[in-house]
Write a structure and sequence with these properties.
By secondary structure, the protein is mainly beta. The chain folds into 2 domains: 1-35, no CATH class; 40-149, Immunoglobulin-like. It is built from 3 helices and 9 strands, in the order αααβββββββββ. Strand 1 (42-53) and strand 2 form a beta hairpin. The termini are far apart.
């Protein structure tokens, strides 16, 4: 969240805004600076789950733009496993969206990380994506996710 606020402060052009004291708290001041024009609303939702597909388990992360938000296709989105106990990653600990040649993804993005589980454990991962209110401003989104895994033997 702090990176987002720093990025927001660096990207928003200066404008006549009352002092923080006159505007109340910092959140309301930043909200006034960050409000998109023309009544645009939106956000990005990150969902995750564990599935079994073709006999193997996968961490599945879905990144969904809501409202007027659009996901930027280049540089895209990524999921990186930061820590995992009792888990082996046969295809690596990071996955990214492939290049599309488009400016934006037409909808949500799904990223899959196959894994092999050897015991009870947990997965901690970082999800990064870029999104925009088209014609106004773009943002870096980052979310940490955690999935506790039960013992695969039962």
């Amino acid at each position: 969240m702090r990176r987002f606020l720093l990025l927001l402060l660096l990207l928003v052009p200066p404008s006549p805004v009352p002092s923080a004291r006159a505007a109340g708290d910092l959140d309301s001041l930043l909200g006034a600076l960050a409000a998109p024009p023309g009544g645009k609303t939106g956000e990005v939702r990150v969902e995750n789950r564990i599935v079994t597909r073709d006999g193997r388990r996968e961490l599945v992360v879905r990144i969904l733009p809501m409202g007027d938000a659009k996901l930027i296709a280049d540089p895209g989105a990524s999921v990186e496993v930061l820590a995992a106990s009792g888990v082996h990653w046969p295809e690596g600990r990071r996955v990214e969206t492939p290049p599309t040649g488009d400016d934006y993804f037409p909808g949500g993005v799904t990223l899959r990380l196959p894994f092999e589980q050897s015991g009870a454990g947990a997965i901690d991962a970082r999800v990064e994506y870029f999104w925009c209110f088209v014609g106004w401003q773009c943002f870096l989104g980052e979310e940490r996710i955690r999935r506790d895994l039960g013992d695969p033997t039962g």
